[in-house]
Inverse folding.
């Protein structure tokens, strides 16, 4: 049984020579490695990377998520980190550099040769969730007039280089560098060596613009079962290849980010290995906005203070109405957000959502209203109390279900992030409404309640 | 400009002959098709499937998500639906049948030949998020003593059949049917036709058990950049192949499901094309449990009714404390759930989470407590009121952050679904705590508040 524990790694790192470090690491799966490294102190993490030689350190970095790797690399001097970055695959380079502070990225790029640095800078300019941001910048391309035998020869000669390119297709360009055709690798075997690529290639190949969104890419791969799609820039020049697994992975990251944002983690990213202060600040920035929204909602209660004094038991039901309406609304928010992501609904189809949610809101409002009304009646023996809280919950549920269903669509069409903004806005509005309904209903039949 | 609107499709379907239906559909991308079909009535959906011939109907079904397809197919008589199901790819068959009512599945399988039905039944028995549940049951396998030329010949003869198999690897089994080797397709080209597969195959191939979890599969593919992994049953016989894109897709579905469950959609699945009653029932079942949890929490307020009567302004702050603590706690829940999914934390590492969250909870509690305390003080001009609500929020934030961080780990280790259960439990406990803190602090210094 090999000891794979973080403690064992800590012991190895505490030694001056750190004997057996490489062997220890080679026994871990990437997941175990990520888990173990997240248990090290900042100092130990630095020691780990600097003790390993550059290719081994790069291999470690490749196993980690972008955020974890960025965190680890930021701790090294730029001269060291640039060497490691240089050794990792270009897709991962971009993923990691995107997660680092701008200043750190600049320092690292300055250590690289101008050509390499310029290439990376170009790739960093693409938005993350576009074809340009998701593509692998390496591909194998030839000219139209190249012969089959030349290509086979080139593939043979450069096999070590191409091995890492994930080559499934060969791309063909004309004299201006524009993409004009595509070939599957095995097409080469079935044609005489003297033929031009132009004569055997598939012309007008499917391709996608560098600015195409993740949604577009997902649509493309759901329609075409390809192993990759070429990406072209504004001049129709081939700049990279997007692989279907990258698209799937990016979609998953997107839903994870949505989930975290929806729960109030701004930026959709937090690991417990991040520094305490940065975690605290991120969470607080969202909470402190929320507290002011809460004050707005609570001011409705303050306005009806007299009614509340007269029927103090209502104070018991206010948080319940607030919580229940929030829950009903959030269910509708989640369904809308999912349908938006899957492309099953578009942001202008608000009327459709209203027509679907209003009935559901009324049915669920009726059910919950009756339930809460009965609870209040049985608890306090006053049917009017039951009527007030039951009706208030009923109306407020209907409002919050409809509002929750529409909010993501509205926010999306005004270019706000539905995941981050829906829930606070929903809660504030439904709280205000709910408090108003309970307390105004109560004011109307105050004599029956006291 | 082609009219691709749902209205156009409705017009076509309203005709007796539905001329141009096939053409209309062939102009839509899969996403547009899914979107358009979701706009049809149940009757129109049935007409759509029955008007198309079986292969075309199957092609339509292939484009839809499992839930949408299941919904559509359930509307047809079993004799019709079994024909369509038979025509779609075996992966998709399973995905769709899993989403259908058991009774409907039984009826459909009875219409099929016993062998086909038995095969499907076998596949349905695997848990959805395991290698068995995610594998493609088709693959190309040969015997160890087969010759290279025989294999090449078989590939040529059956190319139409294999074309749909996504063949990247050929598998090799011994006389007992056990998986003993693997070959890449192009390995065949570089060996003489008379050689045995046994002599050119890669022995002891990587493989995965049919019961392996989605997490294990994700780990496997993050470690090995393969185009697929063979799946073996308990007797080490090859039963299928899992593709990396299936694993990515399943992971994404898992996070989507988590997101919906977290928002109170039981089962993690709802589309607005589902019948109103089933949507309402699903949402209600979660809400009605929540209402009882709310009653528990609110009973704390009822217990302190006298204090509240004396200082009615406290009623304004109770929903705020409840909402703010809930938000702080949910942030921690989301981070824990993400770290659990990514395998960065294990369910027994509660102490680690506590040690990470307790400081964050104290810092954020301090910040929010001071903020709310100041708001209360400025609003009502009573420093003691500020002290009571500020301290209560401070303590309660710390509690809810720590609890929120730990809950998913605790729930997971007792085999409850953290996505579904974390939030209601968290809210109930932090509400009770929050109400108790505010009202008991207030009781202690009641004289200063009135």
């Amino acid at each position: 049984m090999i000891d794979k524990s973080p403690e064992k790694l800590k012991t190895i790192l505490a030694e001056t020579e750190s004997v057996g470090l490489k062997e220890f690491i080679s026994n871990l799966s990437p997941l175990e490695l990520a888990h173990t490294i997240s248990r090290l102190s900042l100092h130990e993490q630095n020691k780990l990377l600097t003790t390993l030689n550059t290719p081994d350190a790069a291999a470690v970095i490749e196993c980690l998520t972008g955020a974890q790797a960025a965190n680890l690399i930021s701790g090294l001097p730029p001269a060291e980190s640039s060497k490691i970055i240089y050794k990792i695959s270009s897709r991962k380079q971009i993923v990691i550099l995107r997660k680092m502070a701008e200043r750190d990225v600049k320092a690292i790029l300055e250590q690289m040769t101008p050509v390499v640095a310029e290439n990376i800078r170009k790739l960093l300019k693409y938005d993350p969730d576009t074809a340009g941001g998701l593509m692998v910048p390496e591909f194998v391309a030839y000219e139209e007039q190249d012969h089959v035998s030349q290509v086979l020869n080139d593939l043979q000669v450069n096999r070590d280089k191409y091995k890492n390119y994930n080559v499934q297709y060969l791309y063909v360009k004309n004299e201006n560098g524009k993409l004009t055709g595509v070939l599957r690798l095995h097409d080469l075997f079935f044609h005489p060596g003297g033929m031009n690529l132009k004569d055997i290639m598939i012309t007008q190949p499917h391709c996608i613009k560098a600015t195409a969104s993740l949604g577009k890419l997902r649509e493309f791969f759901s329609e075409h079962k390809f192993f990759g799609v070429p990406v072209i820039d504004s001049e129709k020049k081939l700049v990279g290849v997007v692989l279907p697994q990258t698209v799937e992975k990016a979609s998953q990251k997107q839903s994870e980010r949505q989930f975290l944002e929806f729960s109030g983690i701004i930026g959709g990213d937090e690991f417990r290995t991040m520094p305490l202060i940065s975690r605290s600040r991120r969470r607080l920035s969202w909470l402190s906005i929320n507290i002011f929204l809460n004050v707005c909602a609570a001011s409705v209660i303050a306005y009806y203070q007299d009614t509340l004094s007269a029927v103090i038991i209502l104070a018991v039901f206010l948080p319940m109405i607030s919580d229940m309406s929030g829950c009903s609304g959030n269910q509708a928010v989640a369904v809308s957000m999912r349908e938006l992501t899957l492309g099953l609904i578009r942001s202008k189809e608000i009327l459709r959502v209203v027509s679907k949610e209003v009935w559901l809101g009324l049915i669920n409002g009726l059910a919950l209203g009756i339930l809460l009304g009965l609870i209040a009646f049985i608890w306090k023996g006053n049917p009017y109390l039951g009527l007030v809280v039951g009706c208030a919950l009923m109306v407020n549920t209907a409002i919050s279900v409809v509002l929750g269903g529409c909010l993501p669509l509205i926010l999306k069409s005004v270019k706000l992030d539905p995941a981050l903004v829906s829930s606070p806005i929903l809660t504030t509005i439904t709280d205000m409404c709910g408090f108003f309904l309970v307390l105004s209903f109560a004011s109307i039949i105050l004599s029956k309640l006291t």
Remarks:
- The radius of gyration of chain B is 30 Å.
- The CA atoms of residues 25 and 33 of chain B lie 7 Å apart.
- Chain B has three domains: 6-125, 141-249, 267-449.
